[in-house]
Amino acid sequence: MTLEVAEGELVSIVGPSGCGKSTLLRCIAGLISPTSGRVTLDGTPVDGVPDGLAVVFQDYSRSLLPWLTVRDNVALPLRRRGKSKAERRAAADEALASVGLPDAGRKYPWQLSGGMQQRVSIARALAYRPSLLLMDEPFGSVDAQTREDLEDLVLRVHRTGGMTILLVTHDIDESVYVGDRVVVLGRNPGHIRAEIDVTLPPERDQIATRADAEFVRLRAEVGRLVRGAASGPVAA
């Protein structure tokens, strides 16, 4: 597959299970090497984990360190930025407040629910202030209301911080709601079936946007492609 993502773009990636969505993110993150071809970031080949990159994994229980407090988990990557202890603490507290956990800093991950732990993982990525944020099914373990709140948080962070975001999701509605563009992957072998520009206003609302006729049209188009209604790669 060939995929280009512009600086500051928010791209949703959807597709059936086993088509390579998570593998694609891991290649971009430099965690695994592609068997052929190459990945470049700002024109530089990726041959390890790049600076300025953060990843929110689907399995939050394996990405948080149980012996560190929530605040220390969030602050941990900031050592790489050369931040002082006071700066790390302040950034961690700000990030935790942004995901609705202002009072959780002194707790340990195992004292929190699964959804709260995933919010800690998101807070850790946001505290790092990456130029490129990769998110692999980041909201799969939270309740519906929290999921909507976190979708809006990602949109707000994207709008105000200008970071580039790639979001892998199985939720078709979510892919349209948050994305500037939706990339639909097919499998056997993994390939790009379609790329769909999301022609919705940048300011979005969970109720009004989802009731918009254009949202309904885009959701139906993405759903048809994901479910294999079209055969083979399709040009959007």
From TrEMBL:
The keyword DNA repair does not apply. It comes from the Bacteria. Residues 1-212 form the ABC transporter domain. Keywords: ATP-binding, Nucleotide-binding, Transport. The keyword Transport applies. CDD domains: ABC_NrtD_SsuB_transporters (cd03293). InterPro entries: AAA+_ATPase (IPR003593), ABC_transporter-like_ATP-bd (IPR003439), ABC_transporter-like_CS (IPR017871), ABC_transporter_ATP-bind (IPR050166), P-loop_NTPase (IPR027417). GO terms for molecular function: ATP binding. This is ABC transporter ATP-binding protein.
